Amino acid sequence: MSDAAPCTTFTGAMRVLAGLLESRTGQILSENRIWRIETALKPILRANGLTDLEALVSRLLSGIERQLSDDVVNALLNNESSFFRDLQTFEMISRELLPHIQATRPDKVLRVWCAGCSTGQEAYSLAIQFQKNAELWRGWRISILATDISTAAIARAQSGIFSQIDVQRGLAITDLLACFEPVGDDWKINEDLRRMVDFRTDNLLEPKVPGGHYDLILCRNVLLYFSLEMRRKVFDRLAQYSRPGGYLMLGAGETVIGQTDDFLSSREFRGSYERRGGLGEVAEHTIRRAR
Amino acid sequence: MKKCLVVDDSKVIRKVARHILESLDINVTEACDGRDALTQCEASIPDVVLLDWNMPVMSGMEFLQELSRTKMAARPKVIFCTTENGLGHIKAAVEAGADEYVMKPFDRDTLESKLQIVGII
Predict the structure, then answer these.
(1) Is there a single domain that holds both residue A38 and residue A108?
(2) What tens digit of pLDDT does each residue of B57-74 get?
(3) Which chain A residues are within 8 Å of B106, Cβ to Cβ?
(4) CB contact under 8 A, A168 and B94
(5) Residue A38: pLDDT above 90?
(6) What interface predicted TM-score (ipTM) does this complex get?
């Protein structure tokens, strides 16, 4: 790799790499994220004795190294995540949304799906939240599914091991003491919490997650990397897996507006979207008709 | 505007912390040891204290113990910010009344996150 200033426009090699990422994941590398390509792929170039991106693309185009293309895709994916990301959102989920869902499920079964879970902090935050409120959820069967297209991210999530930097972002010190133990310079989540989450590699565009409907789907800070067309496809898939009246949480700045009619913005729970066909929608429709 | 007292014997750390805190619209004052910090707290109670552990004159832990013995109109939130990253130190700090704990090295995201957790921002 040369020491020249980072590229600010797409080169031919970068277009091929961005195309590989989009074809495998649906995610787009826009021009304002070009800088990520060189930075993210430096370790792969070094490990494979390649001089620059052109050499990497030549190797990829030879078409015989699936592992190399997997590594490139994993490196280009953005795995930014933190515990209790957007604290107010998590507080709303914990104090308002989950108690509401709880009141509507007499069978005491709760299914949550973290779609695009990255390295697992969001799913573990939910698990911690359930453990802290164990008394409220006594007798409930709670399942937390967490999926991501990145095999590397899922492997890290499954390990339950996080760096000192990771555990300091969003995690209260009392939660660190209660839920983690030090392992060298890192921190490992307690085994019972690790087992609460079912981590799987999965593609949001073609999900193969366990069937049935989910009461709550979190797909936060994921869709911003997709084109409008791909976002619509993802919303179709999320709608298929959402229980009528179930809830979808998106990241700040993400919306369903203009992209799907399957979810309605919730009036009760800020920043959440309700799957059409639930009791809330039926009640609202009845009120409108009565007027 | 919230007020933060940064207590550290390292001028560099105080400068870095000040830079981050001011970017979060927090008013910053500085103290170079626990005794200096206690004097400043008695004169004007900050909303939060960012506290190093090992300092000359009075350590962070001694400051925290003195603070809990001192009668004040309001108790500031205390966030330890230290290279003492062992489990024993963290537990001791929490037991002594620290509200949060930052293990050095830290960055803006870490500090911002801890300030959110203690309700300062």
Answers:
(1) no
(2) 999 999 999 999 998 889
(3) 168
(4) no
(5) no
(6) 0.94
